[in-house]
Amino acid sequence: MPGAGATWGPAAPPSPGGEGPRILVVFAGLHGSTREIAARLARSLTCSGAGRRIGLTAALVPAQQRPDPAPFDAVVLGSAVYGGRWLAPAVSYLETYAATLARRSTWSFSSGLCSRSSVPPLGVEPSPLMHVSIGPRQHRWFAGRLERRLLSAGERRALEGHPPSVDHRDWQGVHQWADEIAGALKAADVRSRRHDVA
Ligand SMILES: Cc1cc2nc3c(=O)[nH]c(=O)nc-3n(C[C@H](O)[C@H](O)[C@H](O)COP(=O)(O)O)c2cc1C
């Protein structure tokens, strides 16, 4: 699997009439699980049927690097959930770029081990800005992974009594979501980005 920062080109030639949409996948995690979900999502975006049809390209960048979303047509922002919250780099990214994200097609996801029913609507609300810049219907919850050998002593203590290492990630679900996102991207998204950066 390509590392963070990798860029995937279109798996098929761009659609006739010009360059396909460009999507930025930004993620925050501590122990690799969310990075792998984001990487799978980015790859599926370009390889899915819908992604290939429109010649979509995806860039994968950690939130700590604070990639500017302006040159992209759409953004997916995801974070692991710790203590019921998104991680600070994801919250900070959302707050820094809220105005740009509000003018882009933006999706978000949270990943953790609590079941969907035990978290508030929206999964989590990392920031009041989330409703403004993303909107509640474009948020997805993905089950994550816990790998005990990767945890700090403090984290192990915090999880005392929890089951040992588990991996509940739903790769098929990630792929399907990528296909939905690629299917939702329209030529209008490309136009709005070009207008913005002109
Ligand atoms: C100390 C600690 C606290 C956690 N708190 C939550 C939580 O509040 N809600 C949740 O759904 N998952 C929680 N998890 C599970 C992580 O979100 C899950 O393991 C996630 O997949 C980790 O992603 P990462 O490897 O990218 O950091 C916690 C895990 C640890 C180690």
TrEMBL record:
User: What residues does the Flavodoxin-like domain cover?
Assistant: 23-182
Q: Which Pfam families match?
A: Flavodoxin_5 (PF12724)
Q: Which residues cross the membrane?
A: none
Source taxon at top rank: Bacteria
InterPro entries per record: Flavodoxin/NO_synth (IPR008254), Flavodoxin_dom (IPR026816), Flavoprotein-like_sf (IPR029039)
Name the UniProt record assigns to this protein: Flavodoxin domain-containing protein
Q: What organism is this sequence from?
A: Blastococcus goldschmidtiae
- What lineage does UniProt assign to this protein's organism? Bacteria, Bacillati, Actinomycetota, Actinomycetes, Geodermatophilales
